[in-house]
């Protein structure tokens, strides 16, 4: 048992020493510290040279991985990029020169929802400590993140660690509901989170249910529209609307358990290229109910409303790796 503890202590010390001796430091900061805008899941990652000599780095945000430790649980959840490379891609090797552009640093922004999904994301939303790693636990000739030009691979750095982050408890987004004239909230909408490798695979899965009791509704796919906020800005997605009054047998009754659900092809609603880039898109569903069924003696709900945004993740995208360089608002306006 004593040998085991000695080994553990040596391994931990070796890891710490390796990070301290690495020619670059790993820095991760909330987006708000960059331009003051609060984007809870967005962070800026930076590799900054420590010394005075040039250093080669693998500048690839996909090499980040996270361990989520919820505040109220002993469970641990691991998060990694769905397209994390198995070895250091030579196309992402960059030389950082201290005193050069941007102080010789490499910097990109990330969205934690690209790495954490499902239970891991729910654990993150509940408030957690997040441990951060960049690269691999062990270095090899093919797995490294920093090196001095021309040096032996045995002196390269295989991975970097960051001090644990504290991710705050996220407030409930809630669901904006359809309000009748008397102000009663009767139904709620939902867009489920989704993930696809490319734009062609993006599906929008919607649901409309009652908040209490039961209500009649007529909902068809073209009643939905979507506001998509992605890496390149905001796009409104809507399909051409059909006409005519629906027959009475197409009206549905929704309850707190029984919902009207649709799985919609994003390509039918959105302009081509909306989900072209890899990244996390915040999609807000909007619904317009127009048919009351009064001609058939029905009292179906009518009105307009929108639900809370849901993340849609595109893991690979088109055109390969696209750098996500953080820009302050004034810089973004200058580029336009």
Q: What are the salient characteristics of this protein?
A:
6-stranded mixed beta sheet; Immunoglobulin-like; 336 residues; mainly beta; 2 domains; 5 helices; disordered C terminus; 4-stranded antiparallel beta sheet; elongated
Structure report:
The chain is 13% helix and 37% strand. The chain folds into two domains: 11-171, Immunoglobulin-like (Sandwich), CATH 2.60.40; 177-314, Sandwich (Immunoglobulin-like), CATH 2.60.40. The strands form six sheets. Strands 13, 16, 17, 20, 21 and 22 form a six-stranded mixed sheet that branches. The termini are far apart. With 336 residues, it is mainly β. Mean pLDDT is 88; it is low at 1-18, 173-184 and 332-336. The chain is elongated, with a radius of gyration of 25 Å.
| Overall SS class | mainly beta
Q: State the end-to-end CA separation.
A: 64 Å
Number of helix segments?
A: 5
Tertiary shape: elongated
Q: Give the CATH topology of the largest domain.
A: Immunoglobulin-like
How is the main sheet built?
Answer: 6 strands, mixed
Radius of gyration equals 25 Å
Give the % helix: 10-25%
Low-confidence stretches: 1-18, 173-184, 332-336
Count of distinct structural domains: 2
CATH architectural name of the largest domain: Sandwich
Number of strand segments:
22
User: Strand-residue fraction?
Assistant: 35-45%
Order of helices and strands: HEHEEEEEEHEEEEEEEEEEEEHEEEH
The first-level CATH class of the largest domain is given as: Mainly Beta
* Average pLDDT reading: 88
